[in-house]
Amino acid sequence: MKSEHPAPPGDREQTFIEHLVELRARLMRSLLAVLVIVVALSFFANDIYTLMAQPMMKLLPPNSTMIATGVAAPFMAPFKLVAVLGLFIALPYVLYQVWGFVAPGLYESEQRLVLPVLISSTLLFYCGAAFAYFVVFPVIFGFFTSTAPAGVTVMTDINSYLDFILSMFVAFGVVFEIPVATVLLVRAGVIERAKLKEMRPYVIVGCFVIGAFLTPPDVVSQSLLAVPMWLLYETGVWVSGLLPKRDEDSDTPRIHPAG
Length: 259
Prior knowledge:
Layout: H1 16-42, H2 45-57, H3 73-102, H4 108-146, H5 158-175, H6 178-187, H7 193-198, H8 200-214, H9 219-240
């Protein structure tokens, strides 16, 4: 017997072709958003690069500047930065398109989890990049410029500098995803919260080991990375304790099979 109330449009079963058409439309929207931002920022490419170079420029010795060793480097380096920044700024919209595509096929309990995960992971990635720029870069570049041998003038190539800061942005952005990863592992049943608490001493040691590899060899620099990593881990453990048990969730699918 058919229901008197038809299922919402979003609940009907879609064909494979319809999924492909929707995926293509969402990809095009995402690419268009990135392109619009890149075009808008391209008019200020040099100013944006100068802003990103400030942590190094402020610490260079007197009469020392950054240099461009490649013929096209003065143009390509700022443009590359703007292209990456365009994707960086458009990330919330891109993730919104991802959410719009996958949400209709998720259970209600999964929907309640995925959307906060997307939002929190985006914000944490931004926080990681900001932490690298405002806290880590001054310390690292201050160490690098102060340890140059006598007679060596520090003049960093703009492409090398750009590659370095972009890799650091990604590294710290990923590191700041620790709470999300921790919550997902507990939620998926891969590991229990009690086990995470037992691992705390090993995690703290591991944070300082990672900090020793990624930062200059001094206690302050290592602590700038290790302490936030440990606190992020503790945040993930704490948040995982606030989540309901899996068997407490309602796993009613939104897509109803035909027939």
